[in-house]
Specification:
4-stranded mixed β-sheet
Length: about 325
Amino acid sequence: MKDGRLSVFIYGAGAVASCLADIFCRAGHSVCMASDKERARELCECGLIVKNPESEAIHEWNVEVLLDLPEHLFFDLIFIALPLNELPKKLPFLARNKSRNLVFCSNTAGNLDSFLSYIGKERVLFCLPACGGFKDGLEMNCLWGSGIERVLQPTVVGSAIGSKRASALQSIFCGLGIPCELSADIDGTLKAHALIISAISAALNAFDGDIFSLSNDKDAMDLLVLSVREGLSSLSSCGIQLPLHLKRWLHIPQSIIRHSWTTIFSLPAAEIALARPIYTRKTENIILRKQLSSILKGASGSCNSWLYLEPSLQHYLMGKS
C-alpha cells in the first residue's frame, strides 16, 4: 500500500471483475485488469465502462490492462474472478507471482486442496461477491445485490486456515461500502453457495433462462425450493458446516421461502445480477453439478429433488404443454 492506496490486480473482465474494479477505482485505489486479447483491446481503447442499470449512472475508468499476471509485479490484492473452467490455466501464473493475498472469487464445490497445495494455503483467500451483471456493447451493466443477496448471501470472505487476512479483507469491503460477512468455514459456504447456484441454473435451463416465467410458475418454484432444502440438508449430513442463514432455511416453512424467492425473482435486478450470469455460464454449471453430485450421492437422507431437478422440471413442463 502506498499513500493509503491499494494496488489491485483483477484476473477477468466480466461482470464480477468489473464490479470489483469499479468499487476500488471509485475509492481511489490503483487497479490493473487482465483479460483475453479482444476484451483487453476494448479496455485499452475505451477504458472500463460500468453502468448501474437501475440508476443509469455510468462510471468510466482508465485501468491498466495486461494479458496475464507478470511474475515480477507485487500487488496488495489479486482477485481471480474467472469461471471455474478457466482457473487451471492461470494457476501457474499465480504460483510464480509472489504477492501475498490471492482472492479466489470463482464458484466451486470441489476440494480446496488443489488451490492450497499449488499456491500455498497461507496466500489463498476466498470471496463470494454479492454482485453480477452483463455486457452490453462496451458497457458492463453491474449491480451489487441488496435484494439478490437475500437469495444467495451477502458478500462473504474467508480463509481455509482462518487467518487474520480474511478479517482484513472483510474490513476493506466494508470500507468500500459493501456489506461483508466473514465465514467461519469457507469450504461449507462455497459448497452451499454452489448448490444454490446449480439448482437455480437447472430451473433456468427449463425456462430457457427466463427468470420471470420461472417466478410465475408456483409448481416449478416449489420444486426449486425443495431441491435446495434437500441438498442443504444432505450437505449437512455429510458433516459440511452450513452458513447460519442457510441453516435457518431448513426450519422455515417451504411456502415462506418460495414466496420470498418468487418476489425477488420477479424484480428487474434478478434478471441482471442473477439470471444472466448463472444461465450463461453453462460449462461452469456442469462442473459444479458434477462436483456436488459426487458429494450428495453418498449422503444420508433424501436429495432426489436436487439430483434430478433438471429432468424433473423438463418432465413437468412437457406435462403442462
